[in-house]
Design goal:
single chain, 257 residues, 13 helices, 79% helix, mainly alpha
Length: 257
């Protein structure tokens, strides 16, 4: 253990030197070595963001976008702020990947219609009954089989990833409130604080299994496969439950705001 700690200390010292060399004189070699060092971070982020049913985004394309985000983060990172580079870089890398996903035709129109139809049922049911519908109730409202609903849910990860991210960062929610997504900065700050409270309350009200999956995925940063093994269910089932929870959150956000 002591040897490991010593190796880590030496490693961090060498990393600090690379940062100093790069930032003090824009050393190209130092920058290249930094990018090589942090490249695994990009692949890790892509693996978490990439849909299990990856018909809509190619892994290499997402990694390339992530590398662009990493380069941007490396160039703009300020050592004086005292923040870990990884913390700063994650948002830049995710942002670049999400921008790419928004620009691509990553979901067939037929799938988008089904996803939106399910979201509409959740929103309507929640508005009338004060609670989300079951899979059976969604299927009945749409006139389809429960298996069809769950199949769409299992392919819904990319859709939720993009559109739910828009919601939290000021997408459809801000657009619906202000008309064009533009508001004074204090209003946006207050709105985001309100969103945090609503999301926290929504997560707290989830059934135990759903709350556990959200906790393991977003807070413990486990992959769907790891969560599936932990809970002794299929990976596709974890994907379905995850999609269902995000649709619930979206419906409750729209209802509240």
């Amino acid at each position: 253990m002591q040897n490991q700690a010593l190796v880590e200390i030496v490693h961090n010292i060498e990393l600090d030197k690379l940062w100093q060399q790069y930032k003090s004189g824009q050393d190209a070699e130092a920058k290249e070595r930094l990018l090589l060092h942090y490249a695994p971070l990009v692949r890790q982020i892509v693996r978490r963001m990439m849909p299990r049913y990856n018909n809509y985004n190619e892994y290499d394309d997402l990694v390339n976008c992530g590398i662009i985000g990493l380069i941007d983060a490396t160039e703009k990172f300020d050592l004086r702020h005292g923040v870990k580079f990884e913390t700063y870089a994650v948002s830049r890398i995710r942002g670049e990947i999400l921008d790419y996903m928004r620009e691509q035709d990553w979901a067939p129109s037929s799938l988008r219609k089904k996803i939106n139809a399910i979201a509409d049922v959740y929103e309507s049911y929640e508005s009338i009954n004060g609670e989300p519908p079951s899979d059976e109730e969604v299927a009945a409202a749409m006139g389809v089989n429960v298996s069809d609903v769950r199949k769409v849910m299992s392919k819904n990860h990319a859709f939720n990833l993009v559109y739910f991210d828009n919601s939290i960062e000021g997408g459809f929610v801000l657009n619906e409130i202000s008309g064009n997504g533009e508001g004074s900065e204090p209003e946006n700050v207050l709105l985001k604080e309100e969103l945090k409270i609503i999301l926290a309350d929504t997560i707290e009200a989830l059934p135990e299994k759903e709350r556990l999956i959200i906790t393991l995925y977003y807070y413990e940063e486990l992959m769907f496969k790891e969560i599936a093994e932990l809970l002794h269910v299929s990976e596709s089932r974890i994907s379905q439950i995850h999609s269902k929870v995000l649709i619930k959150m979206r419906a409750r956000l729209k209802k509240a705001l």
